Amino acid sequence: MKLARYCNLLMLLTCFSGSLYAAPVPLSDPENKAGWKLNKEISDEFNGDSLDLDKWLNLGQDSNYYGQWKGRAPSQFNPDNVTIANGFLTITNRWDPDFKFADEKFNNGYYYGKPAPITTAAIITKKKFKYGYMETRAKAADGPVSSAYWTTGKGGEIDVFEHYGENKKKSHSAKKYHTSFHDWRKGSKTFGKRIWTNDHILDFRVADDFHVYGLEWDENYIAIYVDGRLISCQTREEIGDNWVAVNEQKVWIDSETFDWELKPDQMTKEDFGDGQKFVVDYSRIWQREGNGPGCIDRENLINNPSFEANLEHWQGTASTISEDAKAGKLAAQLTSAGRIEQEVKVKPNTTYMLSAWTKSTETNMKNKWFTGYMGVVMDGKKYTDNRYFFPYYHLKSVQFTTTAETKSVTVYFTNKPQGKHFVIDEVKLVEAPKAQ
Ligand SMILES: [Ca+2]
Ligand SMILES: [Ca+2]
Questions:
Q1: How far is the CA of 308 from the centre of ligand 2 (A)?
Q2: How far away, in angstroms, is 145 Cα from ligand 1 center?
Q3: pLDDT tens for residues 170-222?
Q4: Domains of the chain, each with CATH number or no CATH
Q5: Which of 103, 107, 309, 376 is deepest in the core (most CB within 10 A)?
């Protein structure tokens, strides 16, 4: 009120011109209802001619690898692969046989530079932050390297995303928005492991264009956004003992090779061309006074989503089980190669998020992996799906945007072709409008 009166009575122009330099607001809260304040010390628009070394450490520069962190062999960080131009940070990943690689083996069994002489890069903030909303606008590298936006702190790591572009073996990879917590608690029995994940399939390839990725890390919940739309929100209570992000975090932007996506001995010079570029427009961290409101319920468009009315509203060859439900008393099960589905009325030109908890009980996580799928049929053809393969309940999601003609979609679950026991519970389909 005081500010408004000041503007009215005095220099309107001063107030107006002040707004021209106003700090940016989150795409997921464009009216800044939460009262976010940009933490400029740890945010960067990448507007200069070179990386701001007061803000960032460029790993490998002056042989400083933040301890001994040279990259994930066979790739190694080369600080020369970091460039700033026209308001963008670019990490260029190269097939780089002339680079002088460290003469060391890394603990994943590869030597730096062998069998694939790849250089990547990593930058990490010098300052830390605790709780807030992180957002970046970025385009992933379209090769067999990660493009990652993540944080590390004592005891735990938050991976906002570890994107992959082209992957000859897995077409899903290029649409995956993979968020996780990584356990670095001393003495923890899951030390070094990824212990909570939000595994989402986007409706675009991450390397095709720029998109805005956001993550709110509150003391009591974590909310994940894409292009200003909420994908999922999970409370600290739901995540339980796997909630490891309790200390101040530093922000990383980097690329690495991971053999869980494509084994390095399958990578070739051709995969890298003139360099595979991970391009970042900005990294912004906002913080607010106190905590946020928690996870807000969204209307679920699925009828009988938790199978508490047996298979009412679902068609197909399933039954229900009364032990081992994720929620309530019942869950659905597929016992032979089958499928259940439900047709749901939707609006045209609208984006939706579909998620479910399922498990593939006969997977042993050693040599027997059995897969089930959750998918969406739209306008008469399969539009998207996501894959389940762990023997314990795990949450996965997909997004889709209806066309001008779409009146309904069919949501389905199938364990074809393997036909092993597959349990489904808590299906959720919600509209995901852009935040206003
Ligand atoms: Ca920029
Ligand atoms: Ca249930």
A1: 5
A2: 23
A3: 667 899 999 999 999 999 999 999 999 999 999 999 999 999 999 999 999 99
A4: 37-287 (2.60.120.200), 315-431 (2.60.120.260)
A5: 376
